[in-house]
Amino acid sequence: MAGADDTAPLAELLDERQHLIDVAGWMLGPGAAAEEAVTDTYRRWYGLSDDERTGISDPRMWLTRNMGTICLARLSAPARPLPGQDDVDAAPEPGQDLPETISDVLLHALDTLTPSERAAFVLNDVFAMPPRTVADVVGRTPRECAELTDRARRSLRAARARPTPAHQHDRIVRAVRDACALDDTRHLVSLLSRDAIAFFDGGGKIRALTRPLHGAQQVARALLTLLVPGSRTPLHLTAVNGRTAIVVRHHEQVAAVISFDITDQRVTHVWAVLNPDKLRGWNRPH
User: Fold this and answer.
1) What is the CA radius of gyration of the chain?
2) What order of strands is seen across the sheet that includes strand 253-263?
3) Which of 159, 187, 211 is the last residue of a domain?
4) Helix, strand or coil for residue 143?
5) What is the dihedral angle through the alpha carbons of 33, 69, 79, 118, rounded to the nearest 10 degrees?
6) By mean pLDDT, which of 52-66, 116-130, 144-158 is the weakest?
7) Nearest CA among 11, 133, 25 for reference residue 69
8) CB–CB of 206/255 below 8 Å?
């Protein structure tokens, strides 16, 4: 029978619910579909016996995993409507922002991914869920999920960015590096698209941001904090996948690789890889 041990601080419960709404919003789009997925998730929770619930050591992770499978099933359903089409009343009013980091442009870009790609990308890159959890939701191995995530990143880049000539890309990345090295907020903001978005892949191995940042001011602030001058992390430029990127070193080891998507002379995406596992190849002796 349920007792006092089943309770938790109200703030923690509200934060848990908001986390589920955020995950569902990224996977299904904000609106009724996301709310229904959260409701179905809690319905599964209360469908368990008292003993089963007591045996779950991390309820938030259990809820996230189960909601991920619910969202994935809905993504895979035929004739799924585009984000926002399922509930006209839930659509943002003019001038009202979508929840937190989601923009309508990015939502439509996400909608071009396969259900498995979208689930893997959202759970891995947006919410930094453990690889095993992502694999459980998607129904693939952790390695296959990593490949799905990489494929999703490439698709999003192709969907959001028109090709920028290599010399222009190089010039803008150099300007970004210089602005970061000089702690020049104004110049850095001027190099970013107004709706720029930054992803920080720490893989749960470093205390990095676990959610994307949206907007030139927020992205610039995060980059300048991450790459603060005089922090013993010199910034180098090198080619990554044929395009200039910033490589950050610490004690002669590569600590981060930051690549950029650029459209119309402005940075639209920042992809910061901080996960030590993904940087092993950079730090192998040559």
Assistant:
1) 20
2) 213-214, 192-201, 266-273, 253-263, 243-250, 235-240
3) 159
4) helix
5) 90
6) 144-158
7) 133
8) no
What does DSSP say about strands 192-201 and 266-273: parallel, antiparallel, or unpaired?
A: parallel
The verdict on 28 and 90 lying in the same domain is: yes
> Does residue 36 carry a pLDDT above 90?
yes
Residue 158: per-residue pLDDT: 66
First to last CA, the chain: 61
Query: 128: Cβ–Cβ under 8 A, 6 or more apart, which residues?
Result: 201, 202, 203, 204, 208, 210
Question: Cα–Cα distance between 226 and 208 in angstroms, integer?
Answer: 9
Neighbours of 82 (CB within 10 A): 11
Parent domain of 239: 165-283
Q: What is the CATH number of the domain that holds 242?
A: 3.10.450.50
pTM of this structure: 0.57
For all residues of the chain together, what is the average pLDDT?
82
Q: Which two tokens stand for residue 109?
A: 């870009």
In angstroms, the CA 39 to CA 206 distance is 32
Strands, DSSP E only, in the chain?
192-201, 213-214, 235-240, 243-250, 253-263, 266-273
Cα–Cα dist 240/227, whole Å: 19
Question: Which region, left, alpha or beta, applies to residue 197 given φ > 0 means left and ψ of -120 to 50 means alpha?
Answer: beta
pLDDT band at 6, cuts 50/70/90?
low
Same domain, yes or no: 142 and 222: no
